[in-house]
Amino acid sequence: MLNNTSNIFIVGIKGVGMANLALILKKMGKNVSGSDVEEEFITDKWLIKEKIVITNGFSPFHLPKDTQLLVYSASHGGGENAQVLEAKKRGIKVFHQAAFIAELMKQFKKTIAVAGSHGKTTSASLLAYALIKLGTKPTYLVGSSDFNGYPAGDFGSYDYFVVEADEYAVNPPKDKTPKFNFLHPAIILCTNIDFDHPDVFKDMAEIKKAFAEFLKQGKKVIRADELKIENVIVDAKGTSFTLNNLGRFDIALYGDKNALNAAGVIMTLLDLGFEPDQVREAIKDFTGAKRRFEQQFSLNETFLFDDYAHHPAEIEATIKAAKERFKNKRIIVLFQSHTYSRTAALLDEFVAKLSLADLSLIGPIFPSARENPKQFNITSLDFEKKAKEQNISNVKGFLSMDDLLGELSKNLRKGDIVFTMGAGDVYKLKTAIISLIKKL
After folding, report:
1. For residue 371, is it within any domain?
2. In what helix (H) or strand (E) does residue 21 lie, and over which residues does it extend?
3. DSSP letters along 353-400, please?
4. One domain for residues 273 and 298
5. 3-state secondary structure (DSSP) of residue 308
6. Residue 58, domain extent
7. Among 96, 125, 144, residue at a domain's last position
8. DSSP string spanning 203-257?
9. Closest Cα partner for 249 from 280, 295, 210, 213?
10. What is the pLDDT of residues 106-132, one digit of tens each?
11. Model pLDDT, residue 368
12. Which of 69, 190, 230, 396 is the most exposed place for a label (fewest CB within 10 A)?
């Protein structure tokens, strides 16, 4: 299919999954273009670097005449997007992103899918990074914009293909088929299984069933959450731990959860035939994917980090890792919840985990285009209301980011560790927060 296709158009090309797919296709020698909203995305620099043409908006008139294949996802109207409908009208081959990635994977000798409710981006990035360091020239598709100076999507050769496997649905609420069902990889690395995406899965039993079906696809399955790490030490340089009888491993990441993520990657690399000492050397300098415990600024022992944590378990892991790295320091979290459905379903857990910080300031909920806000009776103020019901005083809600920043300015002290946290656009507060830190 791909061998006879040169001109590919991607709808919603700035999203991390689509942008990285575009980078792979461009490196494979395809003519790639796409469409998206005008808003700036964290993937822009890589798309610009590869000179991929992007049109603003989704007008059918902007679909190039020579397009041979179009890829779309659930975003921007999904199958009802005007450019998708136009492509079908013209007889152009149309693929959902999940189905297209599955077709792409068929061309590679060894395919590895990294799945899990939490940690899959870090694990997939680390696996891709290690394979790069091991000289294998991997192809990889990860759900971030970059890691360690590498784009999070790249074509190296047809030997290895690492893909982040997403359990989210193909086109909710119409089609709730998990996207990872399409993949059929040879090896599956599963980080963990937890309840998330309440707009797709009704309960933990349903999500466990979805993962169980996916794990049947792998000829080899590695469960990171079943591995036993011991003698974990966290310091300013990162984390070290022992695994099985393989000795000690060092990673430039922080906390038990990242040690488990790394353990899963180690076992995957060993299964691929690499020696423990090779693996030890290949993983040690990995500093993390974009928006994963990412340092943005520091001055006079006051730090600003950004983290993608958007689920209570991820929030807990990040705060605990921060406390391990910065002992006796105050941790301040500026959190933005993503999707009304997740916020409503997990509000109690959100408040409990956010209370682990010394102060958590909650901004307006970042909505999903697939949700109707009018169907939900919840705001950021409900975090503080729920906290007060539980006699928690360090979680406060705000209806605007300006009000949140105002509260931060009243409370910020020299030596504090500040996190912007969430899957929305809370990271855009970076400039304002740096300004506050400079005034201390």
Report:
1. yes
2. helix 16-27
3. HHTTSSEEEE---B--TTS-GGG----THHHHHHHHHTT--SEEE-SS
4. no
5. coil
6. 7-96
7. 96
8. SHHHHHHHHHHHHTT-SEEEEGGG--EEEEEEETTEEEEEETTS-EEEESS-SHH
9. 280
10. 999 999 999 999 999 999 999 999 999
11. 81
12. 230
113 lies in the same domain as 172: yes
Strand segments, DSSP code E, in 166-211 are 169-171, 175-178, 187-190
Strand pairing class (248-251; 395-397)? unpaired
Reported confidence tier of residue 284, pLDDT bands at 50, 70, 90: very high
Q: For residue 263, tell me if it sits in a domain.
A: yes
How many structural domains comprise the chain?
A: 3
CA distance 246 to 434: 43
Confidence check: pLDDT of 397 > 90:
yes
CATH classification at residue 32:
3.40.50.720
Nearest to 272 by CA among 214, 220, 216, 228: 220
Provide the 3-class DSSP secondary structure of residue 114: strand
pLDDT of residue 289: 84
CATH number, domain containing residue 190:
3.40.1190.10
The pair of structure tokens assigned to 15 is 């999203």
Is the same domain home to 277 and 301?
no
Q: Where are the alpha helices (DSSP H) in 67-136?
A: 82-90, 97-105, 120-133
For residue 405, pLDDT beyond 80: yes
- pTM, two decimals, is 0.88
CATH number of the CATH domain containing 332: 3.90.190.20
